[in-house]
Amino acid sequence: MTSQHALNAVFAAFExxxxxxxxxxPAHLPILVLILALYLSLAYISHATQGFYSYxxxxxxxxxxxxxxxxxxxxxxxxxxxxxxxxIIWIRRWLIEGKLGMHGKFARSRNNEDEExxxxxxxxxx
Length: 126
Known about the structure:
The chain is mainly alpha-helical. The protein has helices at residues 4-18, 28-50, 64-99, 110-125.
């Protein structure tokens, strides 16, 4: 059976390698850190209400220094992963769109089609 976390990785890899997304803005990194902090607090809320830690390494009775190390390690890993993804997307766009000139097409709305038709008509009039 496929786990939920494995599917998240597949979806992320698909978006990184096979779409035309731009690299994420650096302003997203503090938001990701905030989400991680909220998730961590949720783990402690579940311990207070349900009596268990969702991840055993979050148990402070096993050593507060060890717990701080885990938390800082997860923070560092999130920052590194963000940077690696940013670089991979930048390289993909540089290679595919810049060097190979494969710009692809975006979805068009009705307004874009009208603008393009008027450009074609103007070109035919000259």
